[in-house]
Write a structure and sequence with these properties.
The chain has 17 helices and eleven strands. The strands form three sheets. A five-stranded parallel β-sheet has the order 2-1-7-8-9. Strands 4-3-5-6 form a four-stranded parallel β-sheet, sandwiched between helices. The longest helix is centred in the N-terminal third of the chain and has 14 residues. α1 runs parallel beside α12, α2 packs parallel to α17 and α8 packs across α13. The relative contact order is 0.17. Helix content is about 40%, strand content about 20%. By secondary structure, the chain is an alpha/beta fold. It binds iron/sulfur cluster (2 copies). One iron/sulfur cluster binds next to α2 and α10.
C-alpha cells in the first residue's frame, strides 16, 4: 500500500480489528504504551480504542516534545525575550505553554519579539536578514527534529552568522523508555514505538527492551498502521523489535542524520517534565559550537522554576494517570485556557482526550 487513503480504509481497518479480537488470549490483560504523541492523537481521533477488545489497554506515553519540556526551559526563553534586540523563534506549540510565571504568548502580547518558525533554518535566515538583532531558536524535540537543528548550527558556522544561537532542549527516546520500564506503577507489556524517531535511529537503540521482556513494534501514524502494529504486538510470543512502518524506514535508520546530530550535540542527563533527570536522555551543544549555544552566549538568569500543583501533567506524561483524573480537566483547563503543557500541544494527551474522547 502506498497511499494514505488505503491506511484509512474502513474495510481493511475492520478486518485487522477483528483479527486482533481473534488473536488475543482472553484471560490476560495487555498493557501497550504508545510512546508518540501523534499516535495518541490518531488513536483518539479515529476512535481506535472502541475497535479493540477490552483486555487491550493503551497507555499514552511521554512522546510529545512540548509536554516533556520542563518549566525551566520556558522560563529561560521568557527571560531572554525581555532583552533588547532579541528575537525568540520557536515552533507554534511552544507559544502557549505556561512556564512558571508566564508564557511566550503573553510576553509577546506585552511587546516581546517572539516569532513562530518552522525550522532552525528559518531562524537562521531571519538572523541573516536582521544583522542588528540576536536570534534565539528554541531547539525542542526528539531525534526527529534534532538533526535539522544540528544542520542549522553547522550552516551558521559555515556562513559565519554571529547573531544566531540555539537554546537547546532536545531529548532522546531510548533512555526515557528504559526509565519507564523501571517504574513499578507501570506494568507495560509492549511499546508502540515512534515512527519518526525510528526513521532516524533505526531499531538498535531499542534492542534492550525485548531483553526486559517488552514486546516492541515501530508503527506509522494512520489508523491501519496502528492497528496492524497492535496485531503484531499481540502475536509476538517471544518479545522482539519489529517494524510495521516499513514504507518509511529500515532497521538501520538514517546514518547521515545521526552523524550531523553527533557532530553538534553530546548526550547529557536531561530533565523531563514529570519524570525528572534521566541520564543520557538529552542533547547539549558541544564545546566546539558554543558560539551558537544560547546558554553559553547569554547565560539566562531565572528565578526558581515552580509548577502548578493542581496540574498532574507529570503523571499523565508517565502514563500513570489519565487526563480525566485531573480535577482541572475540562473545567479550569481546556485548549483555549491551558493550565499545563499536555493541554497545549497538538500532540498532548490532555488535548487529545479533550478534543476526541467525548465523541
Ligand atoms: S516528533 Fe514524531 S515521533 Fe516525536 S512525538 Fe512528534 S510525531 Fe511522534
Ligand atoms: S488537564 Fe490541564 S491541568 Fe490537568 S494535567 Fe492536563 S494539562 Fe495539566
Amino acid at each position: 500500500m502506498k497511499y494514505i487513503d488505503e491506511f484509512r480504509n474502513k474495510k481493511l481497518i475492520d478486518k485487522v480489528a477483528s483479527e486482533i479480537r481473534r488473536s488475543v488470549e482472553v484471560n490476560r490483560q495487555y498493557n501497550f504504551m504508545e510512546v508518540c504523541g501523534t499516535h495518541t492523537v490518531s488513536i483518539f481521533r479515529f476512535g481506535l480504542k472502541d475497535l479493540l477488545p477490552d483486555n487491550i489497554n493503551l497507555i499514552s506515553g511521554p512522546g510529545c516534545p512540548v509536554c516533556v519540556t520542563p518549566n525551566e526551559f520556558i522560563d529561560k526563553a521568557i527571560a531572554l525575550s525581555a532583552r533588547k534586540n532579541m528575537i525568540i523563534t520557536t515552533f507554534g506549540d511552544m507559544l502557549k505553554v505556561p512556564g512558571s510565571y508566564s508564557s511566550l504568548e503573553k510576553e509577546r502580547a506585552r511587546g516581546a519579539d517572539v516569532r513562530m518558525v518552522y525550522s532552525g533554518i528559518d531562524a537562521l535566515d531571519l538572523a541573516k536578514k536582521n544583522p542588528g538583532k540576536e536570534i534565539v531558536f528554541l531547539g525542542v524535540g526528539f531525534e526527529t527534529t534534532a538533526p535539522t537543528v544540528a544542520q542549522s548550527i553547522i550552516a551558521a558556522r559555515k556562513n559565519k552568522v554571529k547573531n544566531f544561537s540555539v537554546l537547546c532542549g532536545h531529548k532522546t527516546m531510548p533512555e526515557a523508555l528504559k526509565t519507564l520500564t523501571e517504574d513499578p506503577r507501570l506494568n507495560i507489556d509492549g511499546f508502540l514505538l515512534p515512527g519518526h524517531v525510528s526513521v532516524i535511529i533505526g531499531i538498535t537503540p531499542y534492542l534492550f527492551l525485548p531483553r526486559r521482556n517488552k514486546r516492541c513494534v515501530v508503527a506509522g501514524f494512520e489508523p491501519l498502521d496502528i492497528l496492524q502494529a497492535i496485531l503484531m504486538l499481540v502475536k509476538q510470543r517471544t518479545p522482539k523489535v519489529e517494524i510495521q512502518y516499513t514504507r518509511m524506514m529500515n532497521k538501520n535508520g538514517n546514518a547521515l542524520a545521526r552523524e550531523s546530530m553527533k557532530k553538534v550535540f553530546e548526550e547529557y542527563p536531561s530533565v523531563w517534565r514529570g519524570i525528572g533527570a534521566i541520564k543520557k536522555s538529552g542533547l547539549k551543544i558541544r564545546k566546539e559550537f558554543s558560539d551558537f549555544d544560547t546558554d553559553k552566549k547569554f547565560i539566562p538568569k531565572i528565578s526558581k522554576p515552580k509548577e502548578n500543583r493542581a496540574c498532574i501533567c507529570g503523571d499523565v506524561i508517565k502514563g500513570v494517570k489519565a487526563p480525566p483524573e485531573c480535577k482541572l480537566f475540562g473545567k479550569l483547563c481546556d485548549p483555549e485556557h491551558p493550565v499545563g503543557a499536555c493541554m497545549v500541544s497538538s500532540e498532548g494527551t490532555c488535548a487529545a482526550y479533550y478534543k476526541y474522547a467525548g465523541r
